Amino acid sequence: MEDHKQAKSIVIGELIKNKYKSIKRNYTPNDMNDDFGVTMGYTKAWRSRKKALCLVRGNPDDSYKKLPMYLYMLKQGNPGTITHLLTDKEDRFKYIYIAFSNSINGWRYLRPINVIDGTFLKNAHGGTLFSASTLDSNNNIFVLAFGIADFENDNSCLWFFSKLRDTYGEPKGLAIVSDKHKSIDNVVHMEFPNAFYGACMFHLLNNLKSKYGSHGEELQMNFIAAAKAYTKT
Fold first, then answer.
1. pTM
2. Whether 191 contacts 166, CB under 8 Å
3. Which of 196, 194, 200 lies closest to 175, judged by CA?
């Protein structure tokens, strides 16, 4: 038969679970057909993948319950690490913040530049990943802190920025750079009133391209030259 009804998703999940031990592996229905001679529709393939992931990595809902223990062990293994976990009235996950001790110790030797970004998460419960980073002496990315919240809104941004300030303070000459998200715009000067606040060159260039893309390479060349100039003129 075209769709093997006897090959249920839990059976297939058990067979392919080892394929998902690496987060980089993408196991497809075509791979199932090649390995086991089993053809299936998209829905069964998705259910099988979900079953396999649960067998290998556990249930996402149960993982949230282990966060307090994980944060405790994180601080035991990395003395000086700062973590915060916020839950709602029903003791359900809301926000998390983590700054490793190595990041905190390294900050004193780095330029006072803090690049803030937020990106959506692709998982069962969604959410937004916040990150704060700077550049080391080799111009490589040096992560300062990261956190997870439900959405990138005023409340979550204010909570993340307040924890960031508690961890790193506001050194003289601090510059904060972001993609100018509306919520970051609204709260950045509440926690860092004396910091210079600028727009990320990469994000701003992409916005210009989407609006004035017809100017092509000339637009990009002139924009980069202006962005890297040391004077307004």
1. 0.82
2. no
3. 196
C-alpha Rg value of the chain to the nearest Å: 23
CA separation, residue 34 to residues 24, 28, 29, 53 (Å): 20, 10, 9, 20
Query: Is 177 within 8 Å of 187 (Cβ atoms)?
Result: no
Query: Which amino acid makes up residue 8?
Result: K
The CA distance from 233 to 222, in Å, is 13
Tokens 């709602």 -> residue: 88
Contacts of 10 (CB under 8 A, 6+ apart): 51
Inter-residue contact 116 to 191 (CB < 8 Å): no
**Structural contact between residues 215 and 185, judged by C-beta atoms closer than 8 angstroms:** no
At residue 100, the pLDDT reads 98
Sort strands 175-178 and 141-149 into parallel, antiparallel or unpaired: unpaired
Residue ranges of the chain that CATH labels 3.30.420: 81-199
Between residues 111 and 23, the one the model is more confident about: 111
**In CATH terms, is domain 81-199 a member of 3.30.420?**
yes
